[in-house]
Amino acid sequence: IDNAPSYQILQGKLDHVRIAAQGVYPLKDLRIDRLEIETDPIAFQGLKAKLAQPLQAGVKVVITEADLNHALQSPALIQRLKQFLNKALGSQAGGIVDRYQLQSLRCQFLSNRRVQFDVDLTETGYTEILTFKIVTDVHVEDGQAIQLSNTEITANGQPLFAPLTSRLVAGLNQSLTVDRLEKS
Questions:
Q1: DSSP secondary-structure letter at 92?
Q2: pTM
Q3: For the chain, which terminus, N or C, has the lower number of CB atoms within 10 Å?
């Protein structure tokens, strides 16, 4: 914490806060390789530490491919992912996510901010494995949302119907905003 003069802390004013950490586990089985947080000035009101103005902070998060793949094997994270997908797909999905059991999920970081997900599923009551390959660009828009674009999805090697891909990506893009994610 940088603060000059130091007695301002007693008045509830902080000029600058910087936090850096390595190997942080915010959730069980989810490791963040590097986390850096830096804030603008902070002013508190009263003894309950209510902020006098909205907190402004810059955050840098580094997650390695190995850490992400380890997290993608966690039953707790898989359950949260199912809940998130059901919300992102909306009422038109009709709980379709719950009909499938995840057999494996892998992530690979490609060049130019592209990511590939390989997903193997089985439908309840069937033994055949359905293999999805999802390749997408990932970028942060205005510091407020993670956005997917140029998304290609194949199911058992066959391209998914383009309007369906567009609808899925639009649903995910609406759900990957700071406002929606801050609740969790």
A1: G
A2: 0.73
A3: C
